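Re: that chain you flagged

S.,

Sorry for the slow reply, it's been a week of failed gels. I finally had a moment to sit down with the sequence you sent. For the record, here it is as I used it:
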Amino acid sequence: MAVPDAGTANLSLLAIYNELAENNYADGTARTNVSLTNLSTSGDPPNEDINTVNDAADRPDGSAPHAMSEFYSYDHDAFGLQAPEDLEFNPTSTTTTTLTFGEPANSSRVYIYQYGANAINGAAGAADNLIQNNGSDYVTVNGSGTTDVVLGDSNDKYGNGSAYVTLSLGANDYVNLYLKAYHGGAYSGASDSITCWTKVGTPTNLAASSVNSSGMTISWDEPSGGVHGTNGYRLYFGTNSNVTTNTPYNQGGTSKSFTGLSASTTYYFAVKAKGGSGYHGDITSTGNQATAAATTFSSVIADFTLTGTAGTSGYIYSTYGESFIINNPSGDLTVTMPDPRAGTMQIAMKNGSVPATSDYVNDGAGNLITISSPSDGDEIYVRWRFIPHTTVASGAWTATFTCNGVSDVVAVGGRTTT
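Prediction finished late last night. Pasting the structure tokens below so you have them in one place:
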């Protein structure tokens, strides 16, 4: 109940006290020793702050202690209309966004305005023009609780300065806006502004490639509407079929390569995009891919023996091309055979046939020979020779075959004839 206007009744300190404490200046509890000081100071009886939100003509001026005349027309419980507060948004779908706000006390309507030029996804709209919701210029409220407003469906429009245009949003689009409350012909001030985003799209074409026994690459395509500029994706990858319990990787690009994986093991993966809002969209369906079996060398890799030659050539060499089968290869196959002592070691390796003497190589740095990307089950032939024969000793060195991180070491024997 408001304190009466000046001249309609005589105010007393007790009447002002009762208005503050019991919202009734005309009647209340009998009290003594009431002063302007305790009516004007927060924390003193009646323990009520002066309401400084009302229009200046309808409230004390804020300086304590107040004069008696300042309390004429003052209603302690009447507050000026406040702006909507606690604005939040939720990216509801790839075409809509949901705005949530707290309703100001005593409000009956809330109006939605565009904040800044090109408020509709940075490409359309007009600053301070209305956004209509469900065919109405305003949202009806009752001054309590919160309200959710869905924007972007077929019933919403925005002012472009001369007309109203359907508000159509796509994936990862946004609307910049602010609100004003209304009641009884009066508008509140503007609320804080907020950017309301739609949901980002879902990546497509998730797949695994470059699969071998210890690695693979996972790739996908960017969704329509784009993604957040930094770490726009979250990829889940691991051996658990419940994919989101696997390790998450925040990625800037649309692929990630993995190494050091276990052979003959199934890995599961899925990815979701992050929109400009910082929210992630829907996750893709789960993909899976097994690594290849580990590389093995079989059939022969046995110890090799060098056979002495007749005549003056001085060579000691493997008379026949020894061979082995390579299983589950990935990448290149190499062989090295460093010289352990004086002399020159020459080596040759060929896929599918015995190397000729013209294929011998001596590079002076361990005789590294490479066969590029052999296939599963290929038969690999090897030959070597040593100069001069007089310095060869049994078991003096080894040859190391390596593919896909797997190695097999072969002892090389000494001269058997002269």
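What I noticed first: The mean pLDDT is 85.

Talk soon,
D.
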